[in-house]
């Protein structure tokens, strides 16, 4: 009777079988699904106009066309004497051409003396070529106006009614930088999409651009969590470790092209973590955290992120780096957040696979992903079933081979520092024999 009574109290469960149904297994995302979901939600930052030095590292959003010629006038490429070439025909050390110096021309000079037959004008590098002159004789080809008949090593002070002896013939156009010889007016000097480094910024300045329209570098806040963390240089007590993640991830974000801000070692305190997040939101285009995304009893990261809503914590079919989090703080238009595992190797590999492509997408870069090549691995490899494993390795482009570095554990930062690539073992492989071809993600490119 007791059994029948118990069954009669749950007729719905009895009829549809829900009482005996096991809870649905949590979904496992693939690496490709998680990355695609992130990149679908993140796009290039809006273009803005920046001063030149502020635009370093950014990508142009417009073609840059030169309004004028570069150089803007014919000028001398040497310290020497501007002259007419016919006046130097047959000149030698013994029989030099003696010319009257009619003036001095410094860089930036406005009024220029006219050079006629038998005349020369002393001229400095970068100074405009005077009318009548056809070439420049370097000072080393002259006596420097000393009257000694030997070549001088340097220009001397201006002397009235000076003469100069030219000791060899000078060809027409010699040592002259012609107007527009570098860039002609109307030329596209830089195309949209160009990354602006020192030489590109110099070119923009040379053609007269004070500002430029670019995709700005994303501002990335890197935040590591955990009460066990101490800062490098501080004493490490029992159960404590130095915070390496915030340095690794901040440097990686900078290397990817971001402006990165490091916030290291936030203790496992929900109120403090929330206060830090609120303080950083105003200067962040992207927030990256490490730690607190697993199932630990003291992890408060999920608790705090859940209070904002919109952050999805997932388990991925990968090793290392199974626990991941992604979403936005502040709704659909809020700041994107990527929550990475706390183990150092897991955090770095997760950055390379997910955060770096997000930063490159924000930059508007064409090369979002690291290059992947095929390589021969002389060592046998093992991997857990159903997981895509990323082993640290040393790749040799010379012979197209790759060797694992260290083990598969996610705390081996020494081995990680020696690696220049990630060896990929696919989900459907638990063992690859020695001599197998594998995909290799290059970290130095």
Any key phrases for this structure?
445 residues, alpha/beta, 7-stranded mixed beta sheet, 29 strands, elongated, disordered N terminus, 6-stranded mixed beta sheet
Describe this structure in words.
Helix 5 runs parallel beside helix 8. Mean pLDDT is 89; it is low at 1-18 and 151-160. This protein has helices at residues 2-8, 11-16, 31-41, 198-206, 245-256, 270-281, 301-308, 344-363, 413-418; strands at residues 28-29, 48-51, 59-60, 64-65, 75-76, 80-83, 97-105, 119-123, 135-138, 163-166, 176-177, 188-190, 211-215, 219-225, 229-230, 241-242, 259-266, 286-290, 311-316, 318-319, 323-329, 335-340, 372-377, 381-382, 388-396, 401-404, 421-425, 431-432, 436-442. It has nine helices and 29 strands. The protein has 445 residues and is of the alpha/beta class.
How do the helices and strands line up, and which of them pair or pack?
Blueprint: H1 2-8, H2 11-16, E1 28-29, H3 31-41, E2 48-51, E3 59-60, E4 64-65, E5 75-76, E6 80-83, E7 97-105, E8 119-123, E9 135-138, E10 163-166, E11 176-177, E12 188-190, H4 198-206, E13 211-215, E14 219-225, E15 229-230, E16 241-242, H5 245-256, E17 259-266, H6 270-281, E18 286-290, H7 301-308, E19 311-316, E20 318-319, E21 323-329, E22 335-340, H8 344-363, E23 372-377, E24 381-382, E25 388-396, E26 401-404, H9 413-418, E27 421-425, E28 431-432, E29 436-442
Parallel strand pairs: 1-19, 7-8, 14-17, 14-18, 15-16, 18-22, 20-25
Antiparallel strand pairs: 2-13, 3-13, 4-12, 5-11, 6-8, 6-9, 7-10, 19-21, 21-22, 23-29, 24-28, 25-26, 25-27, 27-29
Helix pairs in contact: 3-8, 5-8, 6-7
